[in-house]
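Possible regression after last week's pipeline update?

I re-ran a chain I had predicted before the update to compare outputs. Posting the input and the new output here so someone can diff against the archived version. Not blocking, just want to make sure nothing changed silently.
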Amino acid sequence: MKQDEESAVADAMQRHLYKLLRSFESCDQHCLAQYGITASQGYALLAFPMGSDTSMNELSRAMGLANSTMTRMVENLVAKELVRRWQDDQDRRVVRVRLTARGEELQRALKEARRELQRRILEELQEEERPSILNALEKLNAAVEKTMRGCCSD
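New output (post-update):
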């Protein structure tokens, strides 16, 4: 592929990805607002393991966030009575967190709302196209991760 063609493809990919990400972000903000939480709080709720506790460090890693950022987010979820937080009995340096019953109920509702949204999106795609689209997304994700490890890793 010529350099001009590569540039055109790269520019088009950037435009489409940006538009796709902004569309999902806008949808998330709108949908989550009806539950009285921000998109970030919704993502955090979805990252919690269902029916068990986790450490703040594990949750931070799962979300790809700094511990201080995760702490502020969890504080807001505790204030909304969606999460419970306590010090670990074996190691007082470790802070454990768990969804409350209300938090678990909201997590289930969020997962179901996401499944419904994805179902509606899939209805717009030909059934025979879906595996190819998923394959392309997986390849794109792997390429981005590989590239980021090569240029931006610590």
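Follow-up from reviewer: compared with the archived run. Helices lie at 3-33, 39-47, 56-63, 67-79, 101-123, 130-152. Marking as no regression found.
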